[in-house]
Amino acid sequence: MKLARKYNRVNLVTSLIILVLSGAVYYFAIHYILTNKLDNDLKIEEEEIVASALKYDKLPLPSDFKDQKVTYSELKPGDSTERYFANTVYNNPDEKETEPGRSLVTTIRAGGKDYSVTITKSSLEAEDLIRLIFLITLGVIIVLLVTLAVINRFVLSNLWRPFYETLKQLKAFNLADKNDFTLQHTQIDEFLELDQSVISMSRRVRQDYKELKSFTDNASHEMMTPLAVINSKLDTLIQTEALSDRQGELIEDVYLAVNRLTRLNQSLLLLAKIENNLIKDEENVILDTLITQKLRQFNELLAASNIHLIQKMEPQRLYMSKYLADIMLNNLISNAIRHNKPNGEIKVLLHSGKLSVVNTGVEKALNSQRAFERFYKDASSEGTGLGLAITSQICNLYNFKLDYHYQGEQHEFSITF
Amino acid sequence: MKILLIEDEEALRDSIITYFTEEGNICETAEDYTSALTKINLYNYDCVVLDLTLPDGDGMEILRNLKNLHKNDGVLIISARHSLDDKLSGLNLGADDYLVKPFHLSELKARVTAIVRRKSFDGNNLIVFREISIDGLAMKTMVNQNTVNLTKKEYDLLIYFIANQNKVITKSALAEHLWGDEIDLSDHFDFIYTHIKNLRKKLVEAGCGDYIKSMYGVGYKFGA
């Protein structure tokens, strides 16, 4: 739930509760006051009747004033002589209607007899007043709620705009990108502070990232020169005449190790370059032709392990670096050959925007979560453990989807373009 | 041939010089930008082997200078930077070839020889080793005036061997030369053996001496 909506909801609910409560209190208070006033009027009337009865020793004529009616009835012995107020109805003789009324029932002694006197007054005006007040209160509630909602909607969303802008930039933040955060124009201290913190944080992170990257890059570069020296010294060493077979074997092992180290180094450099998006020579690559060329290059390797190749390809063009396309295919195909078994099979399928390289091999699925991680390889692998990481990195760069499946004793790597 | 090696790493410089001078080539060296500039201004070379990262300047500048002097020296760039941009800008500036460190000395030798041969060929690009003669333009191999039909890989092998005659060449150097360094063949050196066996057979059958010797564990040597 958005903050504004949550805030709105709380705000509206509390306002509503308070307004309804205050409306109720208001209603009862006014009702009480007006009833009190009516009762007072009734008491005055009573006093007048009592005074008149005392003076003349007989009941005054039951006179009807406007909105007021007095009735008498003789009390029989045993009847209650209690004096009380009651809410009754008042028959308006002018309008021939019954209206809500308030009566005072009391007893008077006149001419030696006890009489019950009922004085009724119309409380219509009071009721009208209460209704009016109720309506006004309701109107105020509605106007207030609408105003609150409008303010929340427009003012709040406007107030929070810089926050959402910053959020948008944070979401789009990419370490490798060069574009920096832009400062929001806002007078609100909290947002200014947020912006400044985000900007300084991004600078710090970028700086650290840059240092890390350049470290990998520099370290790999620096290693190339000693590797070149080792290689050249070995090349010189083997020219010496009297090399025994044993020495020859030892030297071969050193060569292989240097070769592996070189490949590892080159792979790390390549990874750093792809991550930093430094390979920019995009062009239209005709993938099917490129695959055919690659497979021809690997022909001898396939034949040596007696691997059966099945290829089925549709034309497919991609806009990417040819160099990276080359590396991607190399990695996929050489993996399929290296991890195959003698007399195995490789299927290269390219159709409807999807390239699959399927190969037979060890009868156990790879860990599909970790297969694309750097330096993930099984113990028997001779590779650098970076081939799939590089392939996955290339796919990321061009937003291709790289997947691994193991089905029916076959390993399938597929790229969806 | 006369070669100038511009390289700041002493150990590497020494190995390269040793490898090249043994055959009576003239090999001069420069270890920094300034001395390299002086040498290319004063003398002419068949091939300049140029390291791009020098302590006191950019190797590309030397290449620019060389081209401004309108000299016909061949240029081979050797660089630790495996960067496509460097490669392209080097070749655009007029370098003949680009080799990434680390490399095999035999590969360097083969490439320098190819550049020098291309630069100095006067109508006939002919490579001769005893009774073998190769027409580099028609890619035709003759032994005692008889044509030998070689495959592309066998032909490349023979050229590589002749450029590195009397040197021990490792299997991995041959593999990299024939298949490129994209394909890691470190566990499949048998292929080289097959190709060499075929080449040897074809040459001997054509009446040529058996010049290819196998050096146990290390590689092969071509020489009389």
| Total number of beta strands of chain A | 11
What is the total tally of β strands of chain B? 14
Number of helices of chain B: 8
Broad structural category of chain A: alpha+beta
The percentage of residues in β strands of chain B lies in 15-25%
Runs of chain B with pLDDT <50, length 5+?
Answer: none
**Strand arrangement, largest sheet of chain A?**
6-8-9-11-10
Based on CA inertia axes, which overall geometry of chain B fits?
A: globular
What structural class should be given to the helix and strand makeup of chain B?
Answer: alpha/beta
CATH architecture of the largest domain in chain B: 3-Layer(aba) Sandwich
- What would the CATH topology of the largest domain in chain B be? Rossmann fold
Tell me the span between the first and last alpha carbons of chain A.
36 Å
Largest inter-chain contact set: A-B, 49 and 39 residues
The overall average pLDDT of chain A, rounded, is 84
| Unreliable sequence segments of chain A | none
Biggest sheet of chain B, in brief? 5 strands, parallel
Multimeric organization: heterodimer
Strand content of chain A: 15-25%
Question: What is the CATH superfamily classification of the largest domain in chain B?
Answer: Response regulator
Explain this structure to me?
The complex is a heterodimer of chains A (417) and B (224). With 417 residues, chain A is an alpha+beta fold. Chain A has 3 domains: 3-155, no CATH class; 191-275, Methane Monooxygenase Hydroxylase, Chain G, domain 1 (Up-down Bundle), CATH 1.20.58; 282-416, Heat Shock Protein 90, CATH 3.30.565. Helix content of chain A is 54%, strand content 20%. Chain A has 8 helices and 11 strands. Chain A has helices at 3-56, 124-171, 189-237, 245-275, 287-297, 299-304, 322-338, 387-397; strands spanning 68-74, 84-92, 97-110, 113-122, 282-286, 308-313, 317-321, 345-351, 354-360, 401-407, 410-416. In chain A, the strands form 3 sheets. A 5-stranded mixed β-sheet of chain A has the order 6-8-9-11-10. In chain A, strand 10 and strand 11 form a beta hairpin. The longest helix of chain A is centred in the N-terminal third of the chain and has 54 residues, at 3-56. Chain A is rod-shaped, with a radius of gyration of 49 Å. In chain A, 21% of the residues are buried. The mean pLDDT of chain A is 84. Chain B has 224 residues and is α/β, with parallel strands linked by helices. Chain B has 2 domains: 2-120, 3-Layer(aba) Sandwich (Rossmann fold); 126-222, Winged helix-like DNA-binding domain superfamily/Winged helix DNA-binding domain (Arc Repressor Mutant, subunit A). In chain B, helix 2 (33-42) packs parallel to helix 3 (59-68), helix 5 (105-120) crosses helix 6 (152-163) and helix 6 (152-163) crosses helix 8 (190-205). The model of chain B has no long low-confidence stretch (mean pLDDT 87). Classes of the chains: A alpha+beta (417), B alpha/beta (224). The A-B interface holds A 221, 224-225, 227-236, 238-239, 243, 245, 247-252, 255-256, 258-260, 262-263, 266, 269-270, 273, 279, 281, 297-298, 300-301, 304, 323, 326-327, 330, 334, 338, 382-383 and B 9, 11-12, 15-16, 18-19, 80-84, 101-106, 167-168, 170-173, 179, 182-188, 190-191, 215-219.
